[in-house]
Design brief:
Elements (H helix, E strand, L loop, with lengths): L6 E4 L2 E5 L10 E4 L2 H9 L6 H18 L5 H16 L7 H15 L5 H31 L7 E4 L14 H11 L4 E5 L6 H13 L3 E4 L4 H6 L5 E4 L3 E3 L4 E4 L2 H10 L4 E4 L5 E2 L16 H4 E2 L2 E2 L12 E4 L6 E4 L2 E3 L3 H6 L5
The structure holds 5-S-methyl-1-O-phosphono-5-thio-D-ribulose (MRU).
Length: 347
């Protein structure tokens, strides 16, 4: 059972656990229309690639519900425009466009639909995407735990748990599955500056699960790895190009370089919906740059003097050569990734 529900559709509303305020305050954000969903994604009320995908799917449904009294042609045009707005809310996690495309595809399949009927079908599809996410993560967990040695000391970055998905988690799902079998594992969670997903969210989830964990400042990772105190690294992903290059939280690339240098296995855990076969390599992945205030301020307190330049990319690209395996719900893929990944069906 998950200790938190990050994304849930209840009482006609999309209910999101507001991740901006955790772990101190457990507050919910209610979306009654797609513009509120767009706001929630853009402002990190909901975050983490799979959670963003599920929220966007409900966003499409809420837009359809809003337009249900229009004639078929106008309904379709308005929905397309709403989808375009949802798609622009965050650029890097491909799960967002994957979910919106899947919602659009259902309409193409049902050629003879009338508007109220398709609104109901879209609700069912959004529910399906949310339900499936939990099953997918459990499967990632089952495959991934086979790679975790007994008593392993695992380093993870950012938050990839129940909060970043509809439930259970991807990289954190692997850790949970490993812990279900072996309580002697230990997790090192990077703080993950500037948004502190590791310190605030991963640490919260691990504590609630009773999984032994230590939070480290991001820059401690190299020392721990060099000193032989980390057995493997598992991270999530926001977009994986066809050649295996992976976009994930800023700092992931640096960890992968250190891991390679000290021969520590480095794994990526993600659903196949995170794989973007339209992109040949990571060079084509758009990297989101977020507001300077994320760096200059912490919880409203200014740390960096005003007028100083800030560069705040939210993600980086880990080259496929640094990745020992990509753990998905369909199994673990290894190099050569191009051959392995292009063979899988993504929908
Ligand atoms: O900016 P965020 O918090 O949405 O970034 C999240 C990550 O980078 C995660 O590692 C990734 O989305 C995988 S979540 C299962």
């Amino acid at each position: 059972m998950d200790i938190v529900k990050s994304v849930e559709f209840k009482g006609g509303k999309l209910v999101l656990l507001d991740q901006r305020r955790l772990p101190g305050v457990k507050e919910y954000f209610y979306c009654e229309n797609y513009k509120e969903v767009e706001y929630a994604i853009a402002n990190m009320v909901v975050r983490g690639a799979p959670a963003i995908g599920a929220a966007a799917a409900y966003g499409v449904y809420l837009a359809a519900r809003e337009f249900r009294n229009y004639g078929k042609e106008e309904f379709f045009l308005k929905l397309k425009e709403a989808n375009r707005i949802l798609l622009a809310s965050r650029p890097t996690a491909v799960n967002l466009s994957w979910a919106v495309k899947r919602m659009e595809k259902i309409m193409e399949k049902e050629e003879d639909w009338d508007v109220p009927e398709i609104v109901d079908i879209l609700k069912d599809e959004a529910d399906k995407i949310a339900r499936e996410d939990i099953e997918i993560n459990r499967s990632i967990g089952r495959y991934g735990r086979e790679l975790v040695p007994e008593g392993a000391r695992i380093l993870t970055h950012c938050n990839t748990g129940a909060l970043a998905t509809v439930g259970y988690g991807t990289a954190l799902g692997v850790i949970r599955a490993a812990f279900e079998r072996d309580e002697s594992i230990h997790v090192f969670a990077t703080e993950t500056r500037p948004w502190l997903q590791g310190a605030r969210l991963t640490a919260f989830e691990l504590r609630e699960e009773g999984i032994p964990a230590t939070v480290i400042v991001d820059s401690v990772a190299a020392t721990l790895i060099r000193d032989g105190k980390i057995d493997l690294i598992i991270v999530g992903a926001d977009r994986i190009a066809a050649n295996g290059d992976t976009a994930n939280k800023i700092g992931t690339f640096m960890l992968s370089e250190i891991a390679k240098n000290f021969s520590v296995p480095f794994y990526v855990a993600a659903p196949v919906s995170t794989i973007d076969l339209e992109l040949d390599s990571g060079a084509e992945i758009e990297i989101e740059e977020r507001a300077p205030e994320e760096v200059t301020h912490i919880q409203g307190i200014q740390l960096v003097p005003g007028g100083v330049n800030v560069y705040n990319p939210s993600f980086d690209i880990t080259p496929h050569e640094n990745i020992d395996g990509i753990i998905t719900e369909k199994g673990v893929f290894r190099a050569p990734y191009k051959e392995e990944l292009t063979g899988i069906s993504l929908l």
